[in-house]
Amino acid sequence: MAIPLDLGGRVALVTGGTKGIGLGITQAFLAAGATVVTCSRSDADPVPGTTHLACDVRDADAVDRLVAEVVAAHRRLDVLVNNAGGAPYALAAEASPRFHDKVVGLNLMAPLVAAQAANRVMQTQETGGSIVNVSSVSATRPSPGTAAYGAAKAGLDSLTRSLAVEWAPRVRMNAIDVGLCRTENTDDHYGGDDGVAAIERTIPLGRMARPEEVGHVAAFLASDLASYVSGARIECHGGGEPPVFLSALTSPSTQEQN
């Protein structure tokens, strides 16, 4: 028996939804039949089939206005995907308190503020709603060079579990811990094709994720197929990171097995 992933009739707001992983999520939701609104800090060309609004998600008042505008246009808000986030490389000992504050603000406080605004709407709807937080594997492993980012994502995973309890049964809360994903910035970030290939050899599935694959997980979590999934942290990382010692192990027995 076929089990359809159907988001028809639902209104979804995807923060940072016009590029990278956010674009993959937007496209997956469109394919599942959802009405999608995206937002970013500045105006952008809408993804075909969507509406785009400018909003700095770190500004609580702006987020309230964003959600109000979505509800005014569509009469409801069924799904929020907190995707906007990220951080530049900076060693913790050298980064300023202001830098760390901005990183934590974008990756932890902004999702909380957006979730609060969405929850106020979803609690009044007979069908409630679903909130998906896009987190990172950096939440559960060391994140050198992006320490504040990793700490913020760990906080986001914890926040997800707590809000799943506070806002139940009307609103479901889940997180996706995303691993390495191939986007428009990947080659520049990792030094071109050779660098990417070297990294992909360390991933059990042999490659980085495609943005739409993260989108499929988000669409599942937002759908009725996940109607009893809340407070979950779904790892989307291609099998994770094998222990480093395995790459250094050169014992005769290991060589014979190879």
Name its key features.
alpha/beta; 258 residues; Rossmann fold; seven-stranded parallel beta sheet; oxidoreductase; SDR family oxidoreductase; 7 strands
Structural class: alpha/beta
Q: Number of folding domains?
A: 1
- Supply the number of helical segments: 9
Shape: globular
Give the overall pLDDT as a whole number. Answer: 93
Topology order in helix (H) and strand (E) letters: EHEEHEHEHEHHHEHH
Family: Belongs to the short-chain dehydrogenases/reductases (SDR) family.
Protein name: SDR family oxidoreductase
Keywords: Oxidoreductase
Domain Ketoreductase: 10-179
Describe this structure in words.
It is built from nine helices and seven strands. It is α/β, with parallel strands linked by helices and 258 residues long. The chain has a single domain (11-239), classed as Rossmann fold. The model is unreliable at 254-258 (pLDDT under 50). The chain has a seven-stranded parallel beta sheet with strand order 3-2-1-4-5-6-7, with helices on both faces.
Summarize the structure.
This is SDR family oxidoreductase. By secondary structure, the chain is of the alpha/beta class. The protein has helices at 20-31, 60-74, 97-122, 147-166, 186-190, 192-200, 211-222, 244-248, 252-257; strands at residues 11-15, 35-40, 51-54, 79-82, 129-136, 171-178, 232-236.
Which helices and strands appear, and what pairs or packs with what?
Layout: E1 11-15, H1 20-31, E2 35-40, E3 51-54, H2 60-74, E4 79-82, H3 97-122, E5 129-136, H4 147-166, E6 171-178, H5 186-190, H6 192-200, H7 211-222, E7 232-236, H8 244-248, H9 252-257
Parallel strand pairs: 1-2, 1-4, 2-3, 4-5, 5-6, 6-7
Helix pairs in contact: 1-7, 2-3, 3-4
